[in-house]
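Before surveying the methods themselves, we first show a specimen of the format, giving the amino acid sequence and backbone structure tokens:

:::
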Amino acid sequence: MRHLKAGRKFGRNTPHRRAMFRNLAGNLVLHERIRTTDAKAKELRRIVERLITRAVRLGDDLTVDIGTISDDAERKRVMSARIHAQREVAKFLPKKMERTIDEETVEEVDLVHKLFHEIAPRYVERAKEGKGGGYTRIVKLHNRKGDNAPISVIELVGSAAPARKKAVREEE
């Protein structure tokens, strides 16, 4: 019996499952929207929400410039909290991933930096309002042709990536 055993196994052993979710989480942070199966998206949501929450909990310390803090004790506290949170997130996320811009251009992105400096500041106000979480959205699409697996898109709420349906409507 699997009492109190949260999470799906996906027919993989622990290191394989962990590596799969590290890569999925890294791709979600990199692209802010990915397409995967429903089950993987639901598990990935648990992981990514924890990573974003870790960054958002810094609150005002997340956006403050350390050079502007005059009190040495306060500066040390802010730096210590920020470094600790970044190291905790870096334990799970891959350090860097490459994003293809066009056929010839490849850009290397530091995922921890992107999470803390681009993604988390969007959600600081959301956390202050007491909503707690809700940083991702899962949209069900269709079933995959080969094995009839349900496919969905998992995306960060308020991401800059354009929605596919909106883009299709604009073309018409």
